[in-house]
Amino acid sequence: MRAPRHAPLPVRADSPHAPWPLFGTEYSRRIEQAAQAELPPHTLMARAGLAVARLALAVAPHLRDVSILAGPGNNGGDGLLAAVHLQSAGRSVQVHLLGDPARLPPDAAWALSQAQAAGVPIELGAVPEALPAGSLAIDALLGLGHRRSPDGLIAEAVKRLRQHPGPVLAVDLPTGLDGDTGRCLADAPTLAVRADHTLCLLTLKPGLFTGQGRDLAGQVWFDDLDVSPDTLPEASLGLAPETMAALPRRHAQHKGSFGDVLVVGGAPGMTGAAWLAARAALAAGAGRVYVQPLDDRAPLLDPAHPELMGRRSHAASQLPTDALTVVCGCGGGREIASALPLWLGRAPRLLLDADALNAIAGDSGLQTQLTRRAKRGQPTVLTPHPLEAARLLGCSSTEVQADRLAAARALAERLGSTVALKGSGTVVVSPGLPIWINATGNAALATAGTGDVLAGWIAGVWTQGVTAWQATRAGVHHHGAAADHWHASGRRGPLTASRLIKTMSSGVH
Ligand SMILES: NC(=O)C1=CN([C@@H]2O[C@H](COP(=O)(O)OP(=O)(O)OC[C@H]3O[C@@H](n4cnc5c(N)ncnc54)[C@H](OP(=O)(O)O)[C@@H]3O)[C@@H](O)[C@H]2O)[C@@H](O)CC1
Ligand SMILES: [K+]
């Protein structure tokens, strides 16, 4: 997937209708070097500067003043060249160059000479007290070349951009964000630029779409600088529309054609979680949905959804397993631990969520049972949030969040499972397959029960005959798309779990 050549504008990179390839620093450098070797000197930078100027004019057509904060590397060079184009488009441009002109890398030095020749006002080595209130600010401080916390003048400039009341456009990456992981490079999150728009150049970087990336980058745009990578991406951003389309209902099919789901969960005081997951599985299209409450006194009926079938543990263990997908967790409490050995052994498809994951994290015997499933060809899906992932990995949630892609990959490989690491930019990975980052969702999902809905929905899709990888991506995408729809239709506040199921059922993609 690449932007059209000579696109009049950079292409929005969050279109949910296609997967976008993502490349981290190492790959991006290789792609850049290969392209540089083929092209006349400074070609990429010339394209980058033009792309930045075009986007600046498009997102702030009404603003006459443009302040460009340019750093000591080629990211600064992009800003300097953008200044030339913006000035010739009639904007009043001021560049603040925070690097020694004598030590700029060759492309940026060339860009500086172009800006000087065009008479662009350039102030050297000083961060202004404030940026003009009515100006567009361009963050061309640091891009792919920064791996450490902003310091010195760069840190000052980041603070100034954070204080700027007008729009901020970041070049390639918001300064302070690690493009590989989506973590802030500084301990203090205030030492990262919070942009309204980010124009990613040459390659889309994964860190823009997970962890802190989505909050710091604002609207992400992409310009491939007319370069086609000849290498496979490390990860992709997007969805799995093919999965939803691949599940048509034919006349001759009956409820047995769509698979069964059993939800094991709902310990005393948390029964609702299991029924929510069950409702979601049914709404996702499962043929028959059963619930095994982990509270022996809990009723075996959801009066609002009599089509769901409650079973005590003995009866549940007698269900035929051929077409069965089992969800363990969902309000499982401590009680889930005793149900796990049976289903780790028996379930042909098993999804583990919440307390089931905590039980496995604390029991090496259950871990061994889990890893044996993969060897027997029984697929498993894990849907941890960062703390649950940390417990499974034996680290802290801060460490998980510092590199969500690596954490999800480690879990998948270690436990032989498909993993959906939840959070901003949910990361989905199956052993041996590329990482997929979800493009949908927002904070409206941060409310009780939405995780149960996700687990149930994935199971409901999975049991219809797609792979764990397809079902997980489809469920994660669809879950987030419902929240985006909720937000776009002007609603504010949390999207309750019950309403989430209704929104997901209404065909929002
Ligand atoms: N070449 C081309 O034609 C193209 C280039 N492109 C553009 O170039 C960007 C990559 O450029 P780049 O490699 O020069 O790195 P960049 O991010 O500008 O910074 C490096 C400088 O910053 C310094 N520095 C680092 N961390 C720091 C900190 N915390 N605080 C303070 N200083 C810090 C670092 O110093 P050092 O760490 O070495 O001491 C070094 O001097 C890329 O993102 C894209 O925008 C694209 O348009 C495609 C075409
Ligand atoms: K930047």
UniProtKB/TrEMBL annotation:
Keyword NADP assigned: yes
Binding site for (6S)-NADPHX: 74-78, 143-149, 172, 273, 331, 385, 452
Gene3D superfamilies: 3.40.1190.20, YjeF N-terminal domain
Cofactor(s), by name: Mg(2+); K(+)
E.C. code: 4.2.1.136, 5.1.99.6
Cofactor: binding comment: Binds 1 potassium ion per subunit.
Pfam families per UniProt: Carb_kinase, YjeF_N
Gene Ontology MF terms in the entry: ADP-dependent NAD(P)H-hydrate dehydratase activity; ATP binding; metal ion binding; NAD(P)HX epimerase activity
Keyword annotations of the record: ATP-binding, Isomerase, Lyase, Metal-binding, Multifunctional enzyme, NAD, NADP, Nucleotide-binding, Potassium
Residue span(s) of domain YjeF N-terminal: 28-233
Similarity remark: Belongs to the NnrE/AIBP family. Belongs to the NnrD/CARKD family.
Subunit-level organization: Homotetramer.
Protein name: Bifunctional NAD(P)H-hydrate repair enzyme
Lineage per the UniProt record: Bacteria, Pseudomonadati, Pseudomonadota, Betaproteobacteria, Burkholderiales
Gene encoding the protein: nnrD
